[in-house]
Amino acid sequence: xxxxxxxxxxxxxxxxxLMKGDTPEQRASVAHRLCRRIALDVxxxxxxxxxxxxxxxxxxxxADLVRRTLSVTLRNSPILPREIAFKLAQDxxxxxxxxxxxxxxxxxxxxxxxxxxxTAAKQVAIASRDxxxxxxxxxxxxxxxxxxxxxxxxxxxxxxxxxxYDDAMRRYGTDEGVQRGLISREYIPTxxxxxxxxxxxxxxxxxxxxxxxLPAQLAIDLAxxxxxxxxxxxxxxxxxxxxxxxxxxxxxxxxxxTHSLIMRALCCGQMPFVEHALAELSGVGHQxxxxxxxxxxxxxxxxxxxxxxxxxxxxPAFRAAVNVFHETxxxxxxxxxxxFRARMIERVLTQFQAIPREDLEYLLEKLDYYSEMAxxxxxxxxASFGAA
Length: 388
Prior knowledge:
Layout: H1 3-6, H2 12-20, H3 24-40, H4 45-59, H5 64-73, H6 82-89, H7 93-102, H8 108-115, H9 120-127, H10 134-143, H11 146-153, H12 162-172, H13 176-183, H14 190-197, H15 202-211, H16 216-223, H17 227-240, H18 244-253, H19 259-267, H20 271-282, H21 286-294, H22 297-307, H23 315-327, H24 336-351, H25 357-378
Helix pairs in contact: 2-3, 3-5, 5-7, 7-9, 8-10, 9-11, 10-12, 11-13, 13-15, 16-17, 18-20, 19-20, 20-21, 20-22, 21-22, 23-24, 24-25
């Protein structure tokens, strides 16, 4: 499109209506026709300068309808000058929202500046963009209005950090819209899912359990406050998301990486968790801890056990459980994890003579749980709800 090809599209009457049309509707009609050509055609530098001059005129029009026409028609166009886009973004909401939501000409710094100064409705537009950087997401979760965080929580194009999740949960964690958005995401970290179980109920509770593959019994245990029992089930969820080291660190920071938890996890065959737990408590690298548990003989296990601050009286039972783990194998069939854990618990129960009553009841309950899962699988039932 050349300057000559633009100008013939605008008669003297068109130009008069664009500049001083009798009605906003007349000027908006001309603006729409011209902006469509600007958006769709390839421009030379000279043509681009002429187009920018016209866009500047439209952005100054007294009529909201004309400015909105410019914003809507060029909302996706890279040819819209950044300074004009910024001017439109600071206009009334009807004019600003289209460019705030879609314009590709804004820098991340522009969007952060705008997010900190605009209305809630404009923040919603920013939060609804196809992609948002981690920094912009953090700004919105820390400073944004409730409506913006609701929109952001369900936006799969937004890049979330732990800080963003924590700020959203701290400020609006009890809001059903924010809860629903987070639960609907493709993935949320295990520690966030854990926090949410105690906040949601009803349909959202079911969505959290089913969408993020949290075992139903885990959710029930967490909701009722039996946190240590439920934490062992969360271990495998963390392992499946490659989040196990972070999960163990989070437990330790919250004072929940207890000796009894580690022992119970071992009795259930959760060896990767035990390894990372001892690494966390001892300050020794995971690879070295693995060698000390599995390959360094009894003195290696004793050394890391003591370094982690585990009670020496637990060492014989711990060593026996490690031996049971080495002697027990997966059968390779469907749902063999449940059968492995059931066999592991059975052998622990037969070898340990003095299990505290609370731990005994816990292991018996878990034995029933894993045995039931294995039986359901063998009978053709659906045991996927408990794939822990």
